Amino acid sequence: MNKKSMQRKSDIPELANHFIQHFNNLFGMDVKGISDPAMQKMMQNHWSGNIRELEHAIESAFNMMDGGQDLIQEYHLPAYVFQTKKEEISLASPADFSQEIDLPKMLEELERDAIMTMLDKCQGNVSKTAEALGLRRQALQYKLDKYNIQRVFIQKNKVEPSSDYI
């Protein structure tokens, strides 16, 4: 399988199923497939011709799933899957058109900043932060580890460990 480029949108379901089988074996899970609404979003996404981006989206979805779930749903998918080519271009400034845009990296930075801001507003309380961000606590824990966000909060200019985050 060529991991460099995806020639046709019609390849997406087959490639997604390939990655589901791969991650089932890797993570010891039994995911059966992708829900129709999630697949529709994936089919609408502009994948920049690179199937590694699709592979990372499937892996991210696996990391967001709770035990016992056997279908990838829309809410398991990373935010960049919901970006269309038109939206991707509208986020770029005219000066950026002469260079490639690394949208997944931009979105990860945005997501990391949003998590850090909300974690600060919630005084380090992970449960409240997850609720405020519309995430399950487990999903937020994964993102905190992924982005190496320190498990502390600032209280009146003093950094103290958060007892909620142990």
Topology record:
Layout: H1 12-27, E1 33-34, H2 36-44, H3 51-64, E2 71-72, H4 85-91, H5 103-121, H6 126-133, H7 137-146, E3 152-155, E4 158-161
Parallel strand pairs: 1-2
Antiparallel strand pairs: 3-4
Structure description:
The protein is mainly alpha-helical. The protein has 7 helices and 4 strands. The protein has 2 domains: 1-92, Helicase, Ruva Protein, domain 3; 102-166, Arc Repressor Mutant, subunit A. It has helices spanning 12-27, 36-44, 51-64, 85-91, 103-121, 126-133, 137-146; strands at residues 33-34, 71-72, 152-155, 158-161. A two-stranded parallel sheet has the order 1-2. Strand 3 (152-155) and strand 4 form a beta hairpin. Helix 1 (12-27) crosses helix 3 (51-64). The longest helix is centred in the C-terminal third of the chain and has 19 residues, at 103-121.
User: What strand order characterises the main sheet?
Assistant: 1-2
Percent of residues in helices? 40-55%
Number of strands: 4
As a percent range, the share of strand residues is 5-15%
Taken together, the total number of domains comes to: 2
